[in-house]
Amino acid sequence: MQREILDYLLRKARDTEYGHAHGFAAIRDYDSFARQVPLNTYEELKESIDRMRHGESDILWPGKVKWYAKSSGTTNDKSKFIPVTADGLRHIHYAGGTDSVALYLRNHPDSRLFDGKALILGGSHAPNYNVSHSLVGDLSAILIENINPLVNLVRVPKKETALLSDFEQKRDRIARETLSKNVTNISGVPSWMLSVLTRVLELSGKRYISDVWPNIEVFFHGGVAFGPYRQQYEEIIPKADMNYMETYNASEGFFGLQDDPADNAMLLMLDYGVFYEFIPMDEFGSDNPTVLPLWAVETGKNYAMVISTSCGLWRYIIGDTVKFTQTNPYKFIISGRTKHFINAFGEELIVDNAEKGLAYACQQTNAEVLEYTAAPVFMDDHAKCRHQWLIEFAREPDNLKAFEDILDHKLQEINSDYEAKRYKNITLQHLQIVKARPNLFNDWLKAKGKLGGQHKIPRLSNSREYIDELLQMNT
Questions:
Q1: What is the pLDDT of residues 376-412, one digit of tens each?
Q2: φ and ψ at residue 103, rounded to 5 degrees
Q3: At CA 358, angle to CA 353 and CA 362, rounded to 5?
Q4: Using a CB cutoff of 8 Å and minimum separation of 24, what contacts does 322-328 make?
Q5: pTM of this prediction?
Q6: How many whole angstroms separate alpha carbon 138 and alpha carbon 124?
Q7: Could you give the percent of the chain with pLDDT greater than 90?
Q8: How far is CA 445 from CA 40, 77, 439, 455, 470, in A?
């Protein structure tokens, strides 16, 4: 199936400028594709994408591309503009949405999903330069703008509300518009959806979302790890039959779906117009890393994901890392980001480690983490160093020092490199937790003009850029 997808992509784009430059017409198999087409980051494709945004045709994909998903991936000021073609909308993004519902209904044949409305959070969009009918915006806004009009009969809020750019205004209007509706399902990023649901509770005067919407049955979530938010959702939706389904829908494509409620791993979607390759993380960043097609991956190893898509991305390093749990069928978990990790001292702490450590510490101390980020405190004159965590708690632990100890020990248990560096405090000292004031992370995003939409808190960073900015605001 993946070989067929590669053939389709090469055949479709053979007469584009990029196709001519890299000899697509002469490529007959995967090996020649890997030889002739280089690995790309956004920087390598940026000039071509900018020309496309100015209205040029047949650059990375046939024809003109009207839509661009604005993505930071982190909260850097510099934005990326990911092309979203008509083929990509149909064969990748909407295919993923359709399969999300299909797989959910397969697993829950008694569902009454369509008896009510779907609350779908969206971002916003804006004109793209001065090109007629061309727009840039959050992927969710592009999907809402182009969706079949019939879908608007089963979704809330109103399109004008869904596309508002001011998140605080949008949050209030969404809550007011949906209070009296029969909402059966919700879709969005867990952090932003939680903010909307909190406003619904404030306006309704109810304690539980299930008192406002008694027929709610599923949350289709993605964008950030759900683990840190699960307990908060279970508290405001205390229904035994409430379901949660993870989706992996990024600006660059729709890649995975949780097809089994009992398994947190997601099914890799192989027939969507996306060709996958993988770089072993122990070679990532080297001059000539090994690059593997899907059929060569192994379970239990961390890989950086590389995609070629019908949106005109060619051997594009997306920035996410994945780990396969099985290969028949191919199922995986998102283990982190190629840039969101701490490896300042050889400890190779990834987001997957952080999420597991926090979940365990919360479980042991009855705490709840709302937002967090972590970064290294670099070596002093005595070669001592540590990790500093800035955490905003939804429920604080009774003893912050106990929480620190549990998190530190758990990280040693699940990451041998971290454990080795922590050995007898010789190099890496005990981690430090700084308690964040309420709304610190939201205020930081707001100050950067990135509140809502696709923007995310950088969980781990090898530099102190983000955490130092946040600490300055933590007063």
A1: 998 665 557 899 999 999 999 999 999 999 999 999 9
A2: -70, -35
A3: 155
A4: 322/278, 323/299, 323/352, 324/297, 324/298, 324/299, 324/300, 325/263, 325/265, 325/299, 325/300, 326/265, 326/299, 327/297, 327/298, 327/299
A5: 0.81
A6: 6
A7: 70
A8: 29, 11, 10, 8, 10
